[in-house]
Amino acid sequence: MDCYTANWNPLGDSAFYRKYELYSMDWDLKEELRDCLVAAAPYGGPIGLQSAPSCWTVLCQDRVAHILLAVGPDLYLLDHAACSAVTPPGLAPGVSSFLQMAVSFTYRHLALFTDTGYIWMGTASLKEKLCEFNCNIRAPPKQMVWCSRPRSKERAVVVAWERRLMVVGDAPESIQFVLDEDSYLVPELDGVRIFSRSTHEFLHEVPAASEEIFKIASMAPGALLLEAQKEYEKESQKADEYLREIQELGQLTQAVQQCIEAAGHEHQPDMQKSLLRAASFGKCFLDRFPPDSFVHMCQDLRVLNAVRDYHIGIPLTYSQYKQLTIQVLLDRLVLRRLYPLAIQICEYLRLPEVQGVSRILAHWACYKVQQKDVSDEDVARAINQKLGDTPGVSYSDIAARAYGCGRTELAIKLLEYEPRSGEQVPLLLKMKRSKLALSKAIESGDTDLVFTVLLHLKNELNRGDFFMTLRNQPMALSLYRQFCKHQELETLKDLYNQDDNHQELGSFHIRASYAAEERIEGRVAALQTAADAFYKAKNEFAAKATEDQMRLLRLQRRLEDELGGQFLDLSLHDTVTTLILGGHNKRAEQLARDFRIPDKRLWWLKLTALADLEDWEELEKFSKSKKSPIGYLPFVEICMKQHNKYEAKKYASRVGPEQKVKALLLVGDVAQAADVAIEHRNEAELSLVLSHCTGATDGATADKIQRARAQAQKK
Amino acid sequence: MAFPHRPDAPELPDFSMLKRLARDQLIYLLEQLPGKKDLFIEADLMSPLDRIANVSILKQHEVDKLYKVENKPALSSNEQLCFLVRPRIKNMRYIASLVNADKLAGRTRKYKVIFSPQKFYACEMVLEEEGIYGDVSCDEWAFSLLPLDVDLLSMELPEFFRDYFLEGDQRWINTVAQALHLLSTLYGPFPNCYGIGRCAKMAYELWRNLEEEEDGETKGRRPEIGHIFLLDRDVDFVTALCSQVVYEGLVDDTFRIKCGSVDFGPEVTSSDKSLKVLLNAEDKVFNEIRNEHFSNVFGFLSQKARNLQAQYDRRRGMDIKQMKNFVSQELKGLKQEHRLLNIGACESIMKKKTKQDFQELIKTEHALLEGFNIRESTSYIEEHIDRQVSPIESLRLMCLLSITENGLIPKDYRSLKTQYLQSYGPEHLLTFSNLRRAGLLTEQAPGDTLTAVESKVSKLVTDKAAGKITDAFSSLAKRSNFRAISKKLNLIPRVDGEYDLKVPRDMAYVFGGAYVPLSCRIIEQVLERRSWQGLDEVVRLLNCSDFAFTDMTKEDKASSESLRLILVVFLGGCTFSEISALRFLGREKGYRFIFLTTAVTNSARLMEAMSEVKA
User: Which of A1, A412, B222, B565 lies 20 to 30 Å from A466 when distance is taken between CA atoms?
Assistant: First the structure.
């Protein structure tokens, strides 16, 4: 116990650290720990040891990724759930370790290199062996890759050691190359690229068309055609012989096709040319050979040769190019900022502008905006000069990029070129140029867009500034007012206040006086506020009318209290009418005086009300109170309306001369009407009376009128 | 009677496709909510919907019960609710109240809102504010064109008038542009475009933008319709404010035609029930009389009825019992019913309209149009108000007086308003404020201030951006200049003797020979000139110097037939009188007009749109 702290080690002044043994144990292993993979779980969990795999690779089957792992003589297949041991079928015995494995470009095939110098080639599913080869080299290879070609049945693997390259396949022999330098292999779709410090080479299986044509002593139609063309150029008659030979076999079409196809697989432009020349020559002897394949091949080769140039350095083969598609190639060129070449290719292939030139120009512009050493003006001008109104170019996208680079001013300049104002808005908002965004939204005519900006502004600015902005944009203001009318009445009031728009404020309070307020005091107060506003708006008419309404409201309230019944909210006219109908004539007259109801209205009103009451006595008294300002014809009319001919007649006699005939006709006194009309010698009146003469009773009257007319004409 | 079309009149395009499109889209939207659902329909949309898809079609697509959207709690017990509404804020609040009530009750249902013709951001925002944006799914039913008749398309957006011309709210303009875009996609491009009015110009420009964004689609198509003419309602308020006297207009004024059909009450059907009747070109008798001055109609109908009766009697005598005859008689009988119905309507109208009052009203209107006896007309209007004849009619007459006279003189302006407030209540202070803002009822301003405002306005107009900005108050400064325009365009025909309404000479017949509708005259003049050339003075007087435009494209692809088809677009509504007048013009000149309007309107609808009513 004395030295219990002996294994305490101080770190600094206040802390100690110690280390003690948990278990004393010994792993019963042949290998050293450094040759193993160690996996240990925390919280005192278990420890696992596994000797390190000699090699491994990823397999892909049925869209699931597996890992193939080689540990000593065993192979394991791992997926997300399980680990199972596998044995490749037909594997030669005596393998104690796998040194390399390779999966083909298509993930269909697998090759294994063992420590015995033996190579197993089979399917990636490990269900079938394709072939095997023993190279007798036990040194572990640096690299092993598949070398295959689409649609080819040949399988071959390229194995590289320090200074040696070997191609092995389903054959007893292998091909061997010497490597002069350290090299690296890149498997491709249709072969293997090999590059070193000073060279870049391509190893592949010779494609069928090329093989047919160039194989020594080949009699394939393509070979003959190539030969024929060569002879033709030499102006030798052998050309004709070769051609005849092909034609006799009926293989000219095939020959042309072969030459075209082979041209695609040649790397040297000279060879491409002679093959295409041969194809072109052969085509002359064919009717109706569709020109597309030839034309497209010429175009494709021109593009390929351009990108293969060492300045560009994209050594695509024809098959790779077709697999890649022109769009992807263009993207790669754009990424390398090879804009002029990309544009030339687009123009040469006549790609539609939206996919081609415009897109590349847009990319160029996006790059251009990142050139910080050039001034905003210059960049914007340069971009606009190049892009102009090219269809499919979105200036707002370019501007977004400029903004992304922190060049807000440039972005705004670029947005100016955007023809669709609606497109400018989202970016302007992002750049916090909300006011500019508002004008642009208004220009676009899209009210939803305007509204979006408005809400932005509302959150961004304080209320006063927000209102000021609205003030300068009547269209947005109307829109916002409409919204407030339905959703935010108080804001509406504030808006009017801000604008000193007293007229609208007055209207606002008027509406409140009957829509929002219930109590009479509240209503009167609202009206008072309205009247004040109207005075400020110099609208005296409205102010006076509002004050009258306040008086009327109070009065109606009093009437309700004193007389009972419903008076509130009646118009002045209806209030007076109600009073008369209730028999409160004094009150009615008082009210009429107080509110200066014009005589004419009062007479109409009383007349109608009394007739409704059928109070004929009162009506007569009223009619005699003074000379009627509306004449007496209305009296006649209203009595007749109540079917009281007796009363009507009383008034008919008092009707003025101009309307006498009408009045008499109304009460049905045709004869007297005729007399008056004749007396007036008024043609229109005579016709009117005549049109009322119906039946036998009025016969005499009608005659009388006719006579009077005749007399008048004589005179 | 009933002038037939000239034999060379061009065929109208088939607009029934629009109905099919709308129906298919609606069905698609309903199917998006599979299973049984209850459908809540906004009242305004019921009639248009009825013309597109009837109840049985809705039932086929699993609509269980139909409800009207109104401010009442929903009784529906369905698990899925679908709302078919106009994009209005009050609808959003209604839906929110339903959803929130369900939430409180711990109930979960599926809600779908279908906006017609489009949704607005403001609506979605209200849904969000009410906290239910995540609970409902939103869709658009782009149903913006309803063919009411073979030559009449309506957007059924009566609120367009108030929203734009009073509130300065431009949200519907985009809808118009979309509708025009749809038409040009379906019926080919329009080689010639004309327009007048601020809204017309905006709609036109938006529409053009849409076409450019989607170009290629209509390129190379042969145009079916040669001309399109866009016209703002505020270019001509006068015509819309006049009493209508052609039959269809009169039926609209009297009974209110709603979405192409009318409800005839018991006084018309001479039975105790009401009857809903579709009024369009398919009704042969109606088609013959719709464009006639009403004084001709009654005689025509009685003659028809008498002929028919005579024919009937003869048949009985002949005693032929063939099935064929029976069927044809049966069919005739059906037709007769229609005839009788029209007679009933006509009688009812005659009863109302031949009364002394109506004749005096017409007389006053004519006096206002011609500009004589202004004092007398003013007293007539005053009496009209004093007697509480009709609030809407009085208002209409006041507006007519104001527009024809370039505003009321200050004394009349005050006294008429005072009288009106006394008759109909103080809330109409707001009505007057609205009318003033819309330029319908104004006060004559003293000379100097007017020129000041005018110069300000002209400055605004020369400002390039002004083409897109609506100043809600700019109309304040607008003078109607009706008298000068009337003289320039010869709107009041000089008549020696009686105007023969049976054989109309010009478009004035739609107003008893007293007045050629201004809107129609403008269209006639521009079509004659194929441009606004020579009409500069008129355009200036209309305050539209910057808003009159022509756009012609090469006509090589347009057939001569299509060049005689003209689409007239009325922004803010058109009246049946205008339609009749242009139909007449078409017959005279060998054109055919197609009408596209935001809604069919008349004077009463315009006035109601401007009126404040106590809720």
Answer: A412
